[in-house]
């Protein structure tokens, strides 16, 4: 149980109880990715049996989920050169050569993405107890920028499929364990856990509505001990914010983020699309797979878009 009226005390207690500060040395920039070792990747590679592949990314286009909160917009895709330019011979190339080029402008966390370790702070402190201002400056994240983990987010993925949860449903640790047991899969050290709540499927069917920032099913704050004890490498959901919304306190904003990113060093993925993968997992009864979920190595970024690919 948590005291809804005491977010400050509850968050502080969880941060102290579940802190990984200093666990891998004072200079660590990998956080929970330290659990995802080379041996774990070798084990995960053995999960590939059929070669079936599934993209877990939403489309990156102007029809995405964002509504402009804190200047987050949907991707803007613009052509720099087109086929018409080639037809008219205006590109300046010799011997009939022509081509097309394009550009995309987008916030790095506008669609399927990772939260990096420089994304969230607790009382001005970043991952491993560093002063937030020393980590992220106007030049970006100079310590734990997403490029530091560009090659490390590959390994065993585990899908926990909750079907279609109502908005506001707080997924508990017991429910996580029960779901894993029902699906015949065990969550272990170094895993990348994928939690399907069904909210994205509803948004794709009924329209975005308040998907970006509104009420949503998600992990309960009380799962912080489960996330710590399981020693997972990362976790991703099909929702905008990973944790339940509205949250479980009378006055707080993303309290689970406030603990798991700066204190556990946990990588959090949001707005992933598990629909095709979930259907395949239900069909063959296998809910673990090889997962490649590499962020774009944008130097100094505190998050990154990606195209996660599951291979079964």
TrEMBL record:
SUPFAM superfamilies: Putative cyclase
Pfam families: Cyclase (PF04199)
Entry coiled-coil feature ranges: none
Entries under InterPro entries matching the protein: KFase/CYL, KFase_sf
UniProt protein name: Cyclase
